[in-house]
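Extended Data, panel c. Modelled sequence:
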Amino acid sequence: MKILLPILLALSLYVIACKNKGTGNQHGHHHAAKNPQTAEDSLFEEVMQGHDDGMARYGKLKEMEKKLSSLSDSISKLSAAVKQKLAPYKEQVDKTVIELRNAIQGMDKWMDEFSVDSAKENMERRMKYLMDEKVKVNKVKEDIFRSLSKADSLLKVKL
């Protein structure tokens, strides 16, 4: 139940953030502005693309976090001699689990704080807001990709 609740919460946030899919509103959904008309449209699209790229791997984050946590737990149950031999590997696994969790929390936090309609009445403030959000979401996306890459590499190690 402890695992299911955060997954359901994350999925709910995603659905809420993406609720206007297919409405045709100019900014109702990520890709509504296929042919951006303004610099603001283009920048908004770039922010949403960062979000979409990260969210496309969100489920994989959860899956890898679970696999590596299980691997770490399994290593902890081995004999003292084997645990000692695997200590550097386990340390990398544990660090990567934390990175995966941080990436998950980073996307959750970004989605929770992002406001689709922020500063629409003031284009200068809107552009600054979107530029700042583009930086934030791209960092979240990079954290997701980096942690997944590390997790994948660790799971390929032959012990």
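Residues 4-33 have pLDDT under 50 and may be disordered. This feature is highlighted in the accompanying rendering.
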